[in-house]
Amino acid sequence: MEGHLCSILLPLGVTVAWGNVGETTPLPYIILQQVSGMQDITSDGPDADEVARIQVDIYAATPLKARDTGKSVLAILNTYSGGPILSCFNLSNRALTRATDGNVIQRRSLDFAVTYRS
Predict the structure, then answer these.
(1) Which domain range does residue 108 map to?
(2) Is the pTM of this model over 0.85?
(3) Residue of 4, 24, 30, 62 with fewest CB within 10 Å of its CB?
């Protein structure tokens, strides 16, 4: 699931990574991470499908670039299904900033409910 989600965002032309990127990675870039998840249990044991909350963080130099890249991510992922991903739906969006060594990095954070086959 992790690799599949990253791969479908690669056409955006920015660095896409699961978990983190190096400190010298140029802006903009996208980091994905799982912030929660669960696997249902049936009378026959664990279900083959899992549900995860995936956070997608877009880091950019300007608020407009963060917003526009966020819109592109939303266009790709919201209602997506394919490969191991059975469904993907947007849950929330946030506009944030992060100050590092006097530099302000713009951030857009999107949360998705992803049902996938494990």
Answers:
(1) 2-117
(2) yes
(3) 24
